[in-house]
């Protein structure tokens, strides 16, 4: 248990007291047709969106990921960007080609990412050792498992930790007005040379569809998680905690899900 929050034994995260007053910075929106857009603000350092100023601040990003609740500190924690915005996961094997008979068969839900955008709303200012962000990743809350308490874990499979949707971005790439766009085949566009795309955006996987989630535990309904939180932490083994350190970025993902009308065969 930490001040203002609690991770239930069933893996449900709760906030209470002043923590509940901290504004959420993410949202998932309907676009035209079947597409959805997930957006979340990334505040490198502490930020306030309230009046009076400096009330109910967002905390600075941690400098490392820590999934064990009892070991978490202000510098080592989950780095979750929003507790009300979830990114869906692929609970069954993705369908990438036609099978026997030349028929491509879609029985279970399919999740496809079309585009990732990263926009710099302000400059990234660092007077200490923080060199940028590690990327944007995905984490899940795991319920208690026997004698093991509930904890947080990175979504698997993943090759580069914390970089599911976006790769590392150094301070020099986070200047006000810069905008980077990444497509599902790993193609990237933007000011100067763009940062590295995320593992699930063509650098490790290929194509629209994200891989089958492999965080398997019998203590989760269905055995695997079906959604995840977005997270981010800094590089350089330091936070943006200096008097004039910080920066505000906007991350967005355009995605869609395909479903079958044969509900009897869905899992």
Number of strands: 17
Please work out how many helical segments DSSP would assign: 1
Q: Percentage of helical residues? A: under 10%
Low-confidence stretches: none
Which secondary-structure class do the elements indicate?
A: mainly beta
Whole-angstrom Rg: 19 Å
The SSE order reads EEEEEEEEEEEEEEHEEE
Structural commentary:
It is a single chain. The mean pLDDT is 86. Strand 1 (5-7) and strand 2 form a beta hairpin. The chain has one domain (5-11, 26-265). A six-stranded antiparallel sheet has the order 3-4-17-8-13-14, with no helix packed on it. Strands 7-15-10-11 form a four-stranded antiparallel sheet, with no helix packed on it. The protein is globular and about 65 Å long. 2% of the residues lie in helices and 29% in strands. The protein is mainly β.
Give a quick summary of the entry.
Helices cover 2% and strands 29% of the residues.
Topology:
Elements: E1 5-7, E2 13-15, E3 26-30, E4 36-43, E5 64-65, E6 76-77, E7 86-88, E8 110-120, E9 132-133, E10 137-142, E11 151-154, E12 169-170, E13 179-183, E14 188-190, H1 199-203, E15 227-231, E16 234-235, E17 248-258
Parallel strand pairs: 5-6
Antiparallel strand pairs: 1-2, 3-4, 4-17, 7-15, 8-13, 8-17, 9-12, 9-16, 10-11, 10-15, 13-14
């Amino acid at each position: 248990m930490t001040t203002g929050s609690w991770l239930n034994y069933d893996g449900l995260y709760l906030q209470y007291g002043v923590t509940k007053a901290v504004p959420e910075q993410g949202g998932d929106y309907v676009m035209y047709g079947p597409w959805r857009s997930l957006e979340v603000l990334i505040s490198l350092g502490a930020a306030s969106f309230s009046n009076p100023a400096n009330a109910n601040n967002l905390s600075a990003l941690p400098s490392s990921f820590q999934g064990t609740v009892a070991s978490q500190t202000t510098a080592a924690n989950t780095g979750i960007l929003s507790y009300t915005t979830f990114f869906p996961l692929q609970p069954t094997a993705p369908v990438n080609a036609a099978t026997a008979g030349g028929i491509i068969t879609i029985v279970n839900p399919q999740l496809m990412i079309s585009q990732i955008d990263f926009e710099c709303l302000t400059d990234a200012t660092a007077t200490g050792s923080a060199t940028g962000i590690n990327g944007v990743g995905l984490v899940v809350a795991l319920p208690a498992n026997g004698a093991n308490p509930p904890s947080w874990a990175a979504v698997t499979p993943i090759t580069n930790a914390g970089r599911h949707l976006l790769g590392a971005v150094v301070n020099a790439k986070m200047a006000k007005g810069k905008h980077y766009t990444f497509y599902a085949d790993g193609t990237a566009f933007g000011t100067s040379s763009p940062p590295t795309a995320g593992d699930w955006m063509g650098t490790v996987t290929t194509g629209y569809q994200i891989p089958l989630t492999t965080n398997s535990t019998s203590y989760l309904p269905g055995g695997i998680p079906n959604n995840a939180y977005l997270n981010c932490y800094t590089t350089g083994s330091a936070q943006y905690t200096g008097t004039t350190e910080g920066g505000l970025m906007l991350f967005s993902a355009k995605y869609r899900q395909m479903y079958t009308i044969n509900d009897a065969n869905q899992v």
